[in-house]
Amino acid sequence: MTKMTIISTDKIEEAKKMIRQAEKPIIVKAQDVEFNRKILEYGRFDVLFSPESLQGKRSLRSIDSGLDYVMAKAASKNKISIGIDFATLQNVDKKEKAFILTKIKQNIEICRKAGAKIKAIGYSDKRDVFALLLSLGASTQQAKEAVE
């Protein structure tokens, strides 16, 4: 099993310093939208973990999924994967699970359009996650790369 570094600070300069000192692979926990955009543009890490976990606006017309096209394009340019946390889905009630799945679906579509990679994290069965990603709108190639 490989040793990985998880960075969960919400201060951008502190996160950059930790990225410079850490060993690869490096996972950065998503914070607010401004932090995520700056850290994705900075690059030099491997996975932005769980942007869908942020509490954003919910309305009938739009959902703040924690990721937009500009951030996904920056992730694609800097070869950063967007991490989707499937472990949290098991521990929430049905209504919250529906909101999280909607955010994940939106993030998958954004990543697909921008060419950013996705990475599935915290799952027990590869085939189940592969099938779920396909049903949420991921391409076969995206789903295959996400579970590897």
From the structure provided, what is the oligomeric state, counting identical versus distinct chains? single chain
Mean pLDDT: 93
Number of domains: 1
CATH architecture descriptor: Alpha-Beta Barrel
End-to-end separation in angstroms reads 14 Å
CATH class: Alpha Beta
Helical segment count:
6
The overall strand count is 5
Main β-sheet, spatial strand arrangement: 1-2-3-4-5
Q: Gyration radius, to the nearest Å?
A: 15 Å
Q: How much helicity do the residues have? A: 40-55%
Alpha-beta content class: alpha/beta
The shape, in one word, is globular
Please trace the helix and strand order, writing H or E for each element: EHEHEHEHEHH
Q: Uncertain regions: pLDDT < 50 for 5+ in a row?
A: none
Largest sheet composition:
5 strands, parallel
Strand content: 5-15%
Could you describe the 3D structure shown?
The protein has helices at residues 12-21, 33-42, 69-77, 94-114, 126-135, 140-147; strands at residues 5-7, 26-29, 47-49, 81-85, 118-121. Strands 1-2-3-4-5 form a 5-stranded parallel beta sheet. The chain is an alpha/beta fold and 148 residues long. The chain has one domain: TIM Barrel (Alpha-Beta Barrel), CATH 3.20.20.140.
TL;DR of this structure?
It contains six helices and five strands; from the N terminus they run E-H-E-H-E-H-E-H-E-H-H. By secondary structure, the chain is of the alpha/beta class. The longest helix is centred in the C-terminal third of the chain and has 21 residues, at 94-114.
